[in-house]
């Protein structure tokens, strides 16, 4: 994302647009002489709405430039920003504005708009645009069909996914491909209809569509998450009959299954077997092992696995820290918890603010108020990516000028000792 932002900043109009996505940070970075984090007064609701009005106006003006219309990242960020503020009319306003451009006759551009409606949880608008494509001189192929299915999936309208798959494909004479089937399987798995999801394999075979690793990964994760281990073995059997050769992603599903079953030691053996097969475990493999040990309250073994990450040239991710930090706090290893917090902040991983707050609270409880204060100041002084309610945002004075604090003042503003 940083690379995208650097390119965007070359365009002065884009720079203005990015700045309109943010406001002054609610908490300022602490100076060397300051002993506490100071917060600026929160922006008023009226000011926020005016800011968003300005964002919409600037976005529409910038989109008149065809080069700007190629900035996928800005479109995505703007729609997410408006949707998070529940400005759905504004989302419709900026996306409807795009129909006047010749780009709309290109399926790729229309697919982007359909996908953006899906990300904004506005499936009805995604469907309306899909239906309008012929009038906009835009072809409808399996690609835009899949985009519509994905929009329904993202809005968690799983019944609609299954209905569209079976009815719309015939209506518009589109032959579902492997991507279409994978979306259907994911929807059925989300609905808890695992037997129906498994039966899709038979339909694929009848229609000459070969399953791929994504197909089996979706099924395996669903069955393992539901603790249906015997059915997961059936999926493995189907995969062995196909031409698919399991990769690390597939084995990670099995690792998570073993861990959820309480067989952490078996999971460790599986990782060793991966190496014997010439496969390299990745961060998700090690995360599964750490979760297994943390679930068992074995922080020391989890720490050993954490050390293995570097030795295996794996970079930790958000789930690494969100697994280890609570366990470290629970076991009273606050020094390790603070270390993890600082590593995650320095590395710009999108950990939820609540994990930092948990460490701060534990430090205060242990009469380490000074350490708690230092951690709060450290978090406030860094460029910091964080995830709140599933939306990743960032605080970077050079790019967003504090979007993190502006978007979620009620959450980050409470991070204090």
Automatic annotation (TrEMBL):
- Keyword Zinc attributed: no
From the UniProt entry, list the residue stretches annotated as the region Disordered. 24-43
Organism, per UniProt?
Cinnamomum micranthum f. kanehirae
**NCBIfam families hit by this protein:** PPR
Q: What is this protein called?
A: Pentatricopeptide repeat-containing protein, mitochondrial-like protein
Query: What PROSITE patterns does its record include?
Result: PPR
Q: Name one GO cellular component term.
A: chloroplast
Keyword check for Ion transport? no
User: What keywords appear on the UniProt entry?
Assistant: Repeat
Q: Biological process (GO) annotations?
A: chloroplast-nucleus signaling pathway; mitochondria-nucleus signaling pathway
Q: Which Pfam families match?
A: PPR, PPR_2
Annotated Low complexity bias:
24-36
Spell out the residue ranges that the record assigns to PPR repeats: 177-211, 212-246, 247-281, 282-316
**The family this protein is said to belong to:** Belongs to the PPR family. P subfamily.
